[in-house]
From TrEMBL:
It catalyses: UDP-alpha-D-glucose + 2 NAD(+) + H2O = UDP-alpha-D-glucuronate + 2 NADH + 3 H(+). Gene3D superfamilies: Cytochrome c1, transmembrane anchor, C-terminal (1.20.5.100), NAD(P)-binding Rossmann-like Domain (3.40.50.720). Keywords: NAD, Oxidoreductase. This is UDP-glucose 6-dehydrogenase. PANTHER family: UDP-GLUCOSE 6-DEHYDROGENASE TUAD.
């Protein structure tokens, strides 16, 4: 089979490479000349574990290629996927669909045989129908169907998530389109992946329902963590105690500084707007959005409190700025709220992130960037862990203590144990756990 993938970002590049691993001939298309140039030279423009090998192997096998020319990419394809960005629209929080609709117009111009036009981007209900209408308007005679195939991969484990998903959701408008989609995902039948075939609208909504549910789960445990602090309980024990109940489940019950990243903040907001628009408001999610926004800001106050109530003229060492480990993605990362708030309170911030500094430099002016974790520490008044990269989990605590001006650690990801930290002589603040007596 043969497909074109429009957009070579976190989703398009991973999905394209994974489909080629399934044996499909894939041409990835992007408007960003720099990205395509780098990909043609064998460079991977994003940080995603395992992606370099996967891309290299499939390029070498002749199944994966890159171009800026959509016409060429669409020759003889069974399906063309739209995997472009759908960021929040400035001002109102609705999903900005201009890239999706732009791609639909371009696809329309090059349709010359029956093709399934698939939205892989996260798009509000009704977008697939609008894509169909746009193509019909430009090319009334064209032979095509639209389908929705939302993507559930997570950055940092994207390849595994794509190759061994919990499920695949396909919203198809005809049996013919459904059949093309099933054939594309055939390798997943071998590992008995559930394939949920629905209407276009249901598939579109399923993606938002999944992300907003997960955002609510994170927000729930964050609020329970705050309550734990007040009443002397331990949030990890509470999480285990409830998570072992199969109806609740163990995952996504880890407290932290608030969710961030390229999906949850914009998708929660977009679904809230859709629901308001159709007169069926989602009050739970409205509250989740509000709590999470405030929480990210409160985290700077937590750091300031741990530094004795003021960071004016002090140096704060920051470990991790990406929104989670194993990615260089900075979109809506909690660090984008926390670091500027510390700077506004008069702190000098010295930071390190294993992968995201090239992106973060543009977004966090005034930060002094270090070469490694220890490089942030010399003479700092405290160290704050913002992202739980593995390399921050086993720091040499004696060395950390000897480098800091004061042995103060604020661990917003709970990667250290309060007892161990007390023994090591640190004043240690984490989330939702009692301090050792
Ligand atoms: P991204 O910003 O990393 O990549 C989008 C790419 O599309 C860019 O390289 C851009 O240049 C390109 N593009 C835009 N318009 C184009 C056009 N007309 N022709 C060719 N290329 C074009 O975005 P992403 O993170 O990969 O997300 C893509 C979609 O997938 C979004 O809707 C997002 O919500 C959804 N999604 C993302 C994730 C994730 O973890 N990042 C997970 C699941 C779903």
């Amino acid at each position: 089979m043969r497909i074109a993938m429009i957009g070579t970002g976190y989703v398009g590049l991973v999905s394209g490479a994974c489909f080629s691993e399934f044996g499909v001939h894939v041409t990835c298309v992007d408007k960003d000349a720099g990205k395509i140039e780098r990909l043609k030279n064998g460079e991977i423009p994003i940080y995603e574990p395992g992606l370099d090998d996967l891309v290299a192997r499939n390029v070498a096998a002749g199944r994966l290629s890159f171009t800026m020319d959509l016409k060429e990419a669409m020759q003889g394809v069974d399906a063309v996927f739209i995997a472009v960005g759908t960021p929040s629209r400035r001002g109102d929080g609705h999903a900005d669909l201009s890239y999706v609709y732009g791609a639909a117009e371009e696809i329309a111009q090059h349709l010359d045989h029956y093709t399934v036009v698939v939205t892989k981007s996260t798009v509000p209900v009704g977008t697939g129908r609008e894509v169909e209408a746009i193509i019909r308007r430009v090319r009334p005679e064209a032979e095509f169907d639209v389908a929705s195939n939302p993507e559930f991969l997570r950055e940092g484990s994207a390849i595994g998530d794509f190759m061994r998903p919990d499920r695949v959701v396909i919203g198809a408008t005809s049996d013919r389109a459904g059949e093309v989609m099933r054939r594309l995902y055939r390798p997943l039948y071998l590992i008995e992946t559930p394939i949920v075939v629905t209407s276009l609208e249901t598939a579109e909504l399923t993606k938002y329902a999944a992300n907003t549910f997960l955002a609510a789960k994170i927000t729930f445990i964050n609020e329970i963590a705050d309550l734990c602090e007040k009443v002397g309980a331990n949030v990890h024990d509470v999480a285990r105690g409830i998570g072992l109940d199969g109806r609740i489940g163990k995952k996504f019950l880890h407290p932290g500084p608030g969710y961030g990243g390229s999906c949850f903040p914009k998708d929660t907001l977009a679904l809230v707007r859709t629901a308001q628009q159709v007169g069926s408001p989602l009050r739970i999610i409205e509250t989740v959005v509000d709590i999470n926004d405030k929480r990210k800001k409160q985290m700077a106050e937590r750091i300031i409190a741990a530094c004795g109530g003021s960071v004016d003229g002090k140096t704060v060492a920051v470990l991790g700025v990406a929104f989670k480990p194993n990615t260089d993605d900075m979109r809506d990362s909690p660090s984008l709220d926390i670091v500027p708030a510390l700077q506004a309170a008069g702190a000098h911030v010295r930071a390190f992130d294993p992968a995201a500094m090239h992106e973060a430099e543009k977004l966090l002016p005034g930060v002094e960037w270090a070469k490694d974790a220890y490089g942030t520490l010399e003479g700092a008044d405290c160290v704050a862990i913002l992202t739980e990269w593995n390399e921050f989990r086993a720091l040499d605590l004696r060395r950390v203590k000897s480098m800091l001006k004061r042995p103060v650690m604020i661990d917003l990801r709970n990667i250290y144990n309060p007892e161990d930290m007390a023994k090591a002589g640190f004043t240690y603040t984490s989330i939702g756990r009692p301090s050792p007596a």
